[in-house]
Every structure is written in structure tokens, then in C-alpha cells.
């Protein structure tokens, strides 16, 4: 009885709350429901309850007034399937006060907002964010004069043009909608210049609480007039162009909670009192490289939760009072210029989850901080600073810690045993420090570790090389009297970090092959390069089923342990610079990249995409048979003792891009059959005994992609065939297509490489004045013709002048005659030109004065006459560039005498060496090499200061072309860039 009464009461309450659904509204809603998809497809969950047999006021997402009119509709994120246009029944819901259609992209579907929206004149709340409406916002919207909240943000995707506020413009809009408290127009193109937008808003909307105009194409400063908006709580102006100092107005807003000015080009000094506003919760000023500032003392009463200042010029120290930010959960000040020590008081930030402070100048120790008190930390990112001292063992104690990056600092000494460790740690990067000694035992307790990078330290080994040795131990007594449960009888196989994917121990002092990862089948990347590991490469590593990328280069390995399985999935193996002997192992069926160079291998050649056997002891002839089904794209047999002829079977290598046979003892005529390999980019035949002409009159093949041809130091004779030159299109490229060329050389996407980012490079080794340099990536845009040291004769073909993107041309030490063609003056990118030691006559073409990039010129020891062209460029060349000619005069050979007096006699013949810091181009050799690894490894070049200045500059220029972001990155903001030093080969 009682329950029946309750039931009736319940019904009455329902009636009171919902009223009775208005018939017209019901019909409108049912028609609206029809835009949802057919029944068998996905039905939006809220619309499931929209059933004509029930009261529509009880439907999900529907709110009614007491008299049964629908006044609120919220179908946000329901993935409605149909478009809402002028004919939609939605606009019959005349009593609507609140409409939320957000996150329904089919609703707008790239069409304009329907003007019928103007019928809903009772609306207080309108949310059309992420509805994929586009084009001009209709005038009809200005009729919604009661609007308190208008959200049109996020409508700028799917390749359609975004929403625009041109007509009506922002002023017209806000003059009509004077009740607005919250205005979200993020991503709407607002055509407002200068301070127009500030003035429009501040004069019409004095009670505004939320101003969210990110990516609105605003291009004017923030104006003092905004000071009128005393109620502002949220200010979001990211991704606009506000290129002047910020006014101090914001600090007066007593209710300010959120200020976001990311990537706004704001300059000047940030008003620091803003950080002291007691209501402020989030600040994002990141990516404003001209914005300066520093931290004030933080007051005790504050609400700061998120402080993001990355990539700005904020500087100074972190004040001790940072410990007052009790609510702080996120601090990102990476890529700023902060200095001084990290104050101990940060241990009071118990709410802190993300700590990002990389790439600053923080110094001093961090071991007095009680890291274990920071119970909520997930990320500690302190890399690329000047921090020193020991690494505190408590730093891994925050129980949920996932990422710890301390690389590129000056931490030193031994690692102490870690007492409490986060079992969530996924990434531990201590690389590029001065840590030494044995890696502590407790490292095996990071059970979730996926990336361990200890590279570029001085670690000498692991406590127990193989944890299996510990299988009987369950408790280990640590020096600090704590007990560490490590292994537990049967669980021993789960010791250490079974999840490891990426293990980098390169550049340490390991002497034995670490084998604690023997059972870790998830390992994909193993880098043990540049250690002192001796003896045998164990064969169990080839059984690790996920292994893709193995770098064991630059050690002292002598043998590979047999038998070698041939089922390994390793796709990249670098064994270069060891002492491996005997037969070349052929056992990796999926390898696309193998570097066996600089070992003592003797013979047999595996088939892969890339093969480098440079600087081995290959002797005798190249066996023709191995090239029968050739799929090499790169074949590097340089610097061996190969004799005999160039094997004709190379013609089977129809995808060959790079061929290096340089520095061998091959005796043959020019391999004309290579002309049929149209993919060839780089051909290196220097320093062999090749002879005869290079005309190849019997082949029609061409080399449209050829970038580098080096035939130096052979016995080639005859003329340079002009006809061939006209087909070398890659050297003619007029446009600056260096990027696309760099891309074209990359290897095609191959699913097997998904985990390992395969980094290909071609390197030139420049030997000059005792310097040896590898230039990675340079070859990708480098162009060079080197025919020096042969017996070429005849005149220099004028067609050479068509090779407009040529960087280096060396025809020295031949028997060329006739005049220097003036067309060479067209080679506007030329940086080095050597025509010395020929029999060239006539004058230096005056066009040479225009060669602006020319940094090295040698015309010495010819029969040139006349005055040396005068230009700023020419005055920088030394005398040695011109000596040994019959009748050259003028600076720099002879000081210009007064007008009228006869030209002074030219200096005598001489074979004087080049003076100054110039590289002796006669000693330049071109080599090919490969590296694989992560990130960009260009540092060795960019920071190699000792290198001849001009070459440094020229190559830097090229690098910046390849990596336009480089300039920015190696500036003060080094965030996320790890410049790695590569081993010299
Ligand atoms: C700040 O917020 C409070 C509480 O919402 C409100 O009472 C007060 O009027 C606001 N101040 C201003 C200047 O708008
Ligand atoms: C040790 O092994 C036993 C049984 O094999 C298991 O119950 C116990 O949880 C293990 N202890 C640890 C610390 O792994």
C-alpha cells in the first residue's frame, strides 16, 4: 500500500518536473530525430530515448519549461548523421533558450550556418563549436540579442574554408549581442586590424567573462581599452599576431583565472605582477621567442595550477617561493633561459604531475631535493641543462613516475642503488653525462622500462652481467641497509626489465657483451657502438624476435658466434670498424641495410638494398655472379684492393643509386653500360687504373639524376662529351628543390621499419690539412664533378655552364686547351672551381666576377693572360689562385699601379701551396657511408669550429636548406634536439 502511494507520488513529481510535452515541439523533435541514421547503423545514445510514446520532456538532452515547451536541447557529441540547414525542424523550437550542437561534424558538413538560426530569438546559450559549418557567419545571428554565451569555435577543418566574420564583422556582432558574457570564436577568421578588435569588444561587452579568440587572424596589439573588461576570467588569444609588448592591464582583472597567449609573437617584457594575481590558475605564454620576463616572488595565496612558458626568453632564477604554488600540477619552462639552481622548495609541490625544465641553464646539484615527496609526478624532464653532482637515488621514487630525462647535463660519479623505484617508469635517459662505474643492481627493478639510454657516459659494466646468475637469490642487502627483493626463485625469468624496446649503451666503457636482456623478446633497438667490447658477438641476439636495429660498430669484435640462424628479422645491422674476419656472414634475410665496412672480411657478397664493404681487405676481382639478381640501391666497395675489370653484371643493378668503386686497382675502360642505370646519383671511380675516352657513343642511356661524378686520378683521355652533359638534369635544376631531392633519396616506407626510424645518410669525407670530416646528408643536395688528374684534352665544353646547380667543379691536372668558356659564369651556385694545371689560354671571362658563392678558385699554372676581373669576390682569393700563368696581372697578383703606367710583369711560375686556411682540394676524396640512429645527427658538422670558415659557412647554408628548422633549433631554444657526435670512420 505504502509503495503504491510512493509510486503515485513519483508520477506526480515527474509531471511537475517535465510538464506536458508541447505537441508542436514533439513533432519538431521527431523530425529532427529522422536525421539520425537508419536503425541498423549507429544510433546516437541520447536519441535512443526519443520515443514518441513517451513524454518528450523526459528525453535525454531535452529540457522543457513548466508549460511543456522545449527550452533546452543538448545533442553535443552525438555524431548526428544529417545536415541541419534552413529547412530543419530544429528552427521550429521557438522557445529554445539553450542549444548545444557541438562536436557533430555532419551537422554543418562544410556549408554555411543556416540563417534560420535567427528565428531562435530566445536563445541565451548557443554552441556550434566543431560542427563543421563554414563560410560567412549569417547576419541573422545578430538577431539573437539575448545571447549570453556564443561558441563558434573549432570550425576550421576538413579542407573547407573556415568560418568568417567579415559581414557582419566583429564590431557589428558584438554591438548587437550586448548581453554576451562568454564569447568563443577560436578559429573564426575575424577581419580586425590594429586595436579595432579590442575597442569593439571593450566598448560593447563590458561584462564579458570569457574572451576566447585563438587563431582568429587578429593582427593588432592588445590595447589598453581592454582594461574596461573588469570581469574577465578567461583570456585566450593563442596563435594570433600581437607583435608588441603586453600592456599591464591584465593584472587589474580581479577574477582572472586563465591567460593563454601561446604563439602570439608578443614581445617585450611580461608584467610579472600578473603571476601574483590570486585567482590565476593557468598561464600559457609558450612559443613567443621574443617575450622576456622573470618570476616574481610567488605569494602564499595563489591558485596556479599550470604554468607553461616554454620557448620564450624568460630568464633569471626560480625563486624559493615557488614552493608556495601548492596547487601547481604542470610547469613547463623548457627552452627558456633560466639559470641558477633548482630550489629545494620544489619538493613542496606535492600536486606536481609534469615537470618540464629542459634546455635552460640550470646548474648545481639536485640531490638535496626530497624527490620522494613529489607523490604525483609522472614526468621529470631536466635534460640539456648544466646540472651536476650525483643523481639522487630518490629521483625515481615518485610512485607513478613514467619518464625521467636527465641527459645532456654534467652529472658525474657512480649511480647509487635506487631504493624505492617507480614500477611505472617507461623511459630512463641518463645519456650524455659523466657517470661512471658499474650500473647499479637496482636498475633491474624498473619492471616497466621500455627505453633505457645510458649512452655517452663512462659506465664500465653491469653488476651481474646475466641476472640468471641471481636466480637463487631473493633478497639482496644493499649498502644503505635496505633490502631489495630482486629475484624470487621461479620468477627469475622476469628479472630486470622485460618490456625493454630500446636499449642504448653506446659510447661507454663496456668490455663485455651485456646479456641481461637475453630473454627480452621485445627488444627492437640495440646500440652498443663505441665501447671496448671484445671477442665474439653472441648468436642469441639473432633469436630476439622483435629485434630490428643493431649497432655494434666501433668495438673490438673479432668473430660472430656460429651457428647463425637465418630467421632473424633484423633489418639494419652496423658492424663497421671492428676486427671481424673471415667470410662475410650471409644470414639476415630481411636486412635492408648492412654496414660491414672497416673490418677484415675477405669475400662473398650478400644481397641487400644497401651494401657497404668499404675499407675491408677485399682482393682480386669482383665475382660477377653475385650481381646476377642485383637489388642494391647502394653498393660501396671503395677502398679495397679489387683488381680486374668493372663487372658487366653491374648492369643488372637497375635500381642502383650510389656506386663506389673508388680507390681500388681496377683496370678497364669507362663502364659505359652503367649509362643504362637511369637511377644513378653518385658514381665514384676515383683512383683506379681506368683509361680511354668517356664518350660512350654506343649507348643511349642517360643519367638524369646524377649529382656526383668523381673520375679523378685515373688515366682517362680524350674530350669531355658535351652531349652527355646536357642530360645531367639533376645538376641543371634551377629551382631550389633541395628538399624534394633530399626526400627522394630516402628509402620507401616499409612497415618493417615502423619502429626504427632508419636514417640514411651519405657522407663526404673531406681530407685537407689533416682534417677528416663526415658530412651527413650533404650528398643529398651536393653536386660535384671531379675529373682531375687524368689526361683529358680538347676545350672545356661550354655546355658545362648549363649545370646550374653545380657546387664543385674540378678539372685540374689535365691537358685542356683553348679559352675558359664564359658560360661557366652561369654557375651561380659554384663554391669551388679548380682549372689549374692545364693549358688554358686567353683571358679569365669577366663573367666570373659574378660568381658570388665562389669561395675557392684555382686557375694557376695555365697560359692565361690579361687583367684579373675585379670584384669583391675576387679580391678575397690568394695569389696562389693565379700564379704560373703567362700574362695575368692586377690584384691580387700585383698591386694596381697608377693609371697609365704599364702593367707590372706577372710573377714567375711557381707551384706554391695554397696559403691560409683553404682546404687543399687536390686532397679531397669523396666517400659514402651510412649511419642509422634516431634524431638528427648533424652536430659534428655544425659545431666543428676548427674547420675552414668558408666551408663551414657554405655547408651550414646547405644544412639550413635541408633542415630549415635548424637555424631556430640551434639558437637558444634547443628543446628536443639532441645533437649527437658521430664516430669518425
Ligand atoms: C568576480 O566574481 C565574483 C564571483 O563570481 C563576482 O561576484 C564579482 O562581481 C566578480 N568581479 C567582477 C569585477 O566582475
Ligand atoms: C615469490 O614467489 C612466490 C611463489 O612463487 C609468490 O607467491 C611471491 O609473490 C613471489 N614474491 C615476489 C616478491 O615476487
TrEMBL record:
Which keywords label this protein? Cell membrane, Glycoprotein, Leucine-rich repeat, Membrane, Receptor, Repeat, Signal, Transmembrane, Transmembrane helix
- A Pfam short name: LRR_1
Describe its membrane topology.
Single-pass type I membrane protein
Q: List, for all copies, the residue spans of the domain called Leucine-rich repeat-containing N-terminal plant-type.
A: 23-65
Q: Where mainly found?
A: membrane
Is the keyword Repeat assigned to this protein? yes
The protein's location, in the record's own words, is: Cell membrane
Q: Where is the signal peptide?
A: 1-19
Q: Where is this region: Disordered?
A: 894-914
Membrane-traversing stretches: 923-944
Its Gene Ontology cellular component terms are: plasma membrane
Keyword Repeat included in the entry's annotation? yes
Alphabetized InterPro entries for the sequence: Leu-rich_rpt (IPR001611), Leu-rich_rpt_typical-subtyp (IPR003591), LRR_dom_sf (IPR032675), LRR_N_plant-typ (IPR013210), RLP23-like (IPR046956)
Q: Which PANTHER family match?
A: LEUCINE-RICH REPEAT RECEPTOR PROTEIN KINASE EMS1-LIKE-RELATED (PTHR48061), RECEPTOR LIKE PROTEIN 30-LIKE (PTHR48061:SF2)
Family, per entry: Belongs to the RLP family.
Write down what this protein is called: Leucine-rich repeat-containing N-terminal plant-type domain-containing protein
Species in which this protein is naturally found: Malus domestica
Amino acid at each position: 500500500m505504502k509503495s503504491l502511494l510512493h509510486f503515485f507520488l513519483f508520477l506526480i513529481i515527474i509531471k511537475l518536473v517535465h510538464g506536458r510535452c508541447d505537441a508542436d515541439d514533439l513533432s519538431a523533435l521527431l523530425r529532427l530525430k529522422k536525421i539520425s541514421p537508419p536503425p541498423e547503423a549507429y544510433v546516437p545514445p541520447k536519441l535512443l530515448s526519443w520515443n514518441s510514446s513517451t513524454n518528450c520532456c523526459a528525453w535525454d538532452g531535452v529540457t522543457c519549461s513548466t508549460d511543456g515547451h522545449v527550452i533546452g536541447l543538448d545533442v553535443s557529441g552525438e555524431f548526428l548523421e544529417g545536415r541541419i540547414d534552413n529547412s530543419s525542424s530544429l528552427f521550429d523550437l521557438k522557445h529554445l533558450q539553450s542549444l548545444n550542437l557541438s562536436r557533430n561534424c555532419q551537422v554543418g558538413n562544410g556549408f554555411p550556418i543556416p540563417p534560420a538560426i535567427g528565428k531562435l530569438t530566445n536563445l541565451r546559450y548557443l554552441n556550434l563549436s566543431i560542427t563543421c559549418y563554414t563560410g560567412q557567419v549569417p547576419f541573422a545571428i545578430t538577431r539573437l540579442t539575448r545571447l549570453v554565451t556564443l561558441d563558434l569555435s573549432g570550425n576550421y577543418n576538413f579542407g573547407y574554408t573556415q568560418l568568417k566574420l567579415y559581414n557582419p564583422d566583429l564590431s557589428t556582432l558584438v554591438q548587437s549581442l550586448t548581453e554576451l558574457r562568454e564569447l568563443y570564436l577560436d578559429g573564426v577568421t575575424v577581419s580586425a586590424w590594429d586595436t579595432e578588435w579590442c575597442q569593439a569588444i571593450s566598448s560593447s561587452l563590458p561584462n564579458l567573462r570569457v574572451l576566447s579568440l585563438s587563431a582568429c587572424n587578429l593582427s593588432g596589439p592588445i590595447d589598453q581599452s581592454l582594461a574596461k573588461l573588469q570581469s574577465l576570467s578567461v583570456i585566450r588569444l593563442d596563435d594570433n599576431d600581437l607583435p608588441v609588448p603586453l600592456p599591464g592591464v591584465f593584472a587589474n582583472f580581479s577574477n582572472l583565472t586563465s591567460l593563454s597567449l601561446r604563439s602570439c609573437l608578443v614581445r617585450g617584457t611580461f608584467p610579472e605582477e600578473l603571476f601574483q594575481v590570486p585567482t590565476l590558475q593557468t598561464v600559457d605564454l609558450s612559443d613567443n621567442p621574443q617575450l622576456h620576463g622573470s618570476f616574481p616572488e610567488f605569494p602564499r595565496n595563489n591558485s596556479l595550477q599550470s604554468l607553461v612558458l616554454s620557448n620564450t626568453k624568460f630568464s633569471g632564477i626560480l625563486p624559493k617561493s615557488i614552493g608556495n604554488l601548492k596547487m601547481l600540477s604542470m610547469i613547463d619552462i623548457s627552452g627558456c633561459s633560466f639559470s641558477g639552481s633548482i630550489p629545494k622548495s620544489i619538493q613542496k609541490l606535492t600536486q606536481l604531475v609534469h615537470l618540464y625544465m629542459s634546455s635552460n641553464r640550470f646548474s648545481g646539484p639536485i640531490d638535496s631535493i626530497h624527490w620522494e615527496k613529489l607523490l604525483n609526478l609522472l614526468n621529470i624532464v631536466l635534460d640539456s641543462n648544466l646540472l651536476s653532482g650525483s643523481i639522487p637515488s630518490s629521483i625515481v621514487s615518485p610512485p607513478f613516475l613514467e619518464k625521467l630525462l636527465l641527459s645532456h647535463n654534467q652529472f658525474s660519479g657512480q649511480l647509487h642503488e635506487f631504493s624505492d623505484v617507480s614500477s611505472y617508469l617507461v623511459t630512463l635517459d641518463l645519456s650524455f653525462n659523466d657517470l661512471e662505474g658499474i650500473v647499479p643492481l637496482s636498475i633491474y627493478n624498473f619492471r616497466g622500462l621500455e627505453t633505457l639510454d645510458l649512452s655517452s657516459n663512462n659506465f664500465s659494466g653491469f653488476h651481474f652481467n646475466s641476472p640468471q646468475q641471481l636466480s637463487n637469490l631473493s633478497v639482496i642487502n644493499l649498502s644503505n641497509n635496505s633490502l631489495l627483493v630482486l629475484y624470487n626463485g621461479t620468477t627469475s625469468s622476469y628479472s630486470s626489465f622485460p618490456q625493454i624496446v630500446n636499449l642504448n649503451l653506446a659510447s661507454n666503457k663496456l668490455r663485455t657483451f651485456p646479456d641481461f636482456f637475453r630473454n627480452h623478446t621485445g627488444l627492437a633497438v640495440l646500440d652498443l657502438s663505441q665501447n671496448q667490447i671484445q671477442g665474439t658477438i653472441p648468436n642469441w641476439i639473432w633469436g630476439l624476435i622483435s629485434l630490428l636495429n643493431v649497432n655494434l660498430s666501433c668495438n673490438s669484435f673479432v668473430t660472430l658466434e656460429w651457428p647463425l640462424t637465418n630467421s632473424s628479422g633484423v633489418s639494419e645491422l652496423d658492424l663497421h670498424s671492428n676486427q671481424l674476419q673471415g667470410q662475410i656472414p650471409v644470414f639476415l634475410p630481411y636486412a635492408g641495410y648492412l654496414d660491414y665496412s672497416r673490418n677484415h672480411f675477405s669475400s662473398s657478397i650478400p644481397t641487400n638494398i644497401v651494401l657497404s664493404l668499404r675499407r675491408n681487405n677485399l682482393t682480386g676481382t669482383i665475382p660477377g655472379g653475385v650481381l646476377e639478381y642485383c637489388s642494391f640501391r647502394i653498393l660501396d666497395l671503395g677502398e679495397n684492393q679489387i683488381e680486374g675489370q668493372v663487372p658487366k653484371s653491374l648492369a643488372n643493378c637497375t635500381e642502383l643509386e650510389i656506386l663506389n668503386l673508388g680507390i681500388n686497382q681496377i683496370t678497364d675502360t669507362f663502364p659505359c653500360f652503367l649509362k643504362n642505370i637511369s637511377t644513378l646519383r653518385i658514381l665514384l671511380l676515383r683512383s683506379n687504373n681506368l683509361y680511354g675516352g668517356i664518350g660512350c657513343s654506343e649507348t643511349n642511356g642517360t643519367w638524369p639524376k646524377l649529382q656526383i661524378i668523381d673520375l679523378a686520378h685515373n688515366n682517362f683521355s680524350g674530350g669531355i662529351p658535351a652531349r652527355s652533359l646536357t642530360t645531367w638534369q639533376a645538376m641543371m635544376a634551377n629551382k631550389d628543390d633541395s628538399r624534394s631531392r633530399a626526400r627522394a633519396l630516402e628509402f620507401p616506407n616499409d612497415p618493417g621499419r615502423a619502429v626504427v626510424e632508419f636514417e640514411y645518410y651519405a657522407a663526404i669525407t673531406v681530407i685537407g690539412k689533416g682534417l677528416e670530416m663526415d658530412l651527413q646528408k650533404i650528398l643529398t643536395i651536393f653536386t660535384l664533378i671531379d675529373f682531375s688528374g687524368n689526361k683529358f684534352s680538347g676545350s672545356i665544353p661550354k655546355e658545362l655552364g648549363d649545370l646550374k646547380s653545380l657546387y664543385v667543379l674540378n678539372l685540374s691536372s689535365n691537358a685542356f686547351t683553348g679559352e675558359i668558356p664564359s658560360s661557366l659564369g652561369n654557375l651561380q651556385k659554384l663554391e669551388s672551381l679548380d682549372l689549374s694545371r692545364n693549358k688554358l689560354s686567353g683571358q679569365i671571362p669577366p663573367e666570373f666576377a659574378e660568381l658570388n658563392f665562389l669561395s675557392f678558385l684555382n686557375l694557376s699554372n695555365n697560359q692565361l693572360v690579361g687583367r684579373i676581373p675585379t670584384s669583391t669576390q675576387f679580391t678575397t682569393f690568394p695569389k696562389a689562385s693565379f700564379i704560373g700563368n703567362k700574362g695575368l696581372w692586377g690584384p691580387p697578383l700585383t698591386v694596381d699601379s697608377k693609371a697609365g703606367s704599364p702593367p707590372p710583369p706577372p710573377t714567375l711560375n711557381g707551384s706554391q701551396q695554397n696559403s691560409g686556411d683553404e682546404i687543399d682540394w687536390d686532397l679531397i676524396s669523396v666517400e659514402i657511408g651510412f649511419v642509422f640512429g634516431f634524431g638528427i645527427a648533424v652536430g659534428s658538422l655544425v659545431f666543428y669550429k676548427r674547420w675552414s670558415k668558408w666551408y663551414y659557412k657554405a655547408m651550414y647554408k646547405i644544412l639550413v636548406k635541408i633542415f630549415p628548422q635548424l637555424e631556430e633549433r640551434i639558437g637558444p631554444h634547443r628543446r628536443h634536439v639532441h645533437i649527437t657526435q658521430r664516430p669518425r670512420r
